[in-house]
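Why do we bother with a discrete structure alphabet at all? Because it lets us treat a fold like text: something you can write down, compare, and reason about line by line. To make this less abstract, here is a complete entry for Thioredoxin domain-containing protein 9. Read it the way you would read a sentence in a foreign language you are learning: slowly, and without expecting to understand everything at once.
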Amino acid sequence: MCHSTEQQQPDILYMCPLNHTFFSLLAVQTYTKMAADTSVDIFAKVMENQLLQTAKIMEEQLDAELEKLDKIDEDEMDRLKERRLEALKKAQQQKQEWLSKGHGEYREIPSEREFFQEVKESKNVVCHFYKDSTFRCKILDKHLAVVAKKHVETKFLKLNVEKAPFLCERLRIKVIPTLALVKDGKTKDYIVGFTDLGNTDEFTTETLEWRLGCAGIINYSGNLMEPPFQNQKKYGTQFTMLEKKTIRGKKQCKCIRTIW
């Protein structure tokens, strides 16, 4: 049997200094990469935690602001409700006071003596000077009864001229029917006959309201510059509303009649 004299050499690659250096560098790179990856992961987690914490703080601040706004809104609503209730309470008290003084109904007073007492008690008074024999007085009665119930802020009265000669002389009542419009105890205006009401027996209650509103004797909610009979020209009479300012700057409306 033949044996080879050449002895087999063991694999000593790993023992080579160069190979050792290679593996050392590889290990360092691997460690560095692992360390870098670990640092990135830690940094990412730190940033994530910071962002979450910041978001939480911002959310809490936003919730606090919203709660504050809600509280302000609720407080404001409560104040508005209180003011509203207080206004309603005062309005109801005022209405009861008016009713206790005879407002809210169209009634007759027996003599001129009562007239002075009535106008003294109330800020706004409308008094119809009438005669039983005058047909147009009955037409006016019908409308005044409606307006009196609607406008409780004003007192509506009627007085027979035959029972008030002194007062008729003092107020210069010459045409029947005549409405005397009294404000703060002083006669402010007159509605003489139906001329200011469209010059017709068939005027509407709204027309009467408008005319009373022009004098400021009732709280009129319509447009004073647009009378209900604006386009009416019956009996050769045309009506025009003029707006003017008083010395104090307040606006007043005046009904101007043009005869043609």
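What the structure line is telling us, in plain words: Residues 106-220 form a domain with the Glutaredoxin fold (CATH 3.40.30.10). Residues 137 and 177 are 6 Å apart (CA to CA).
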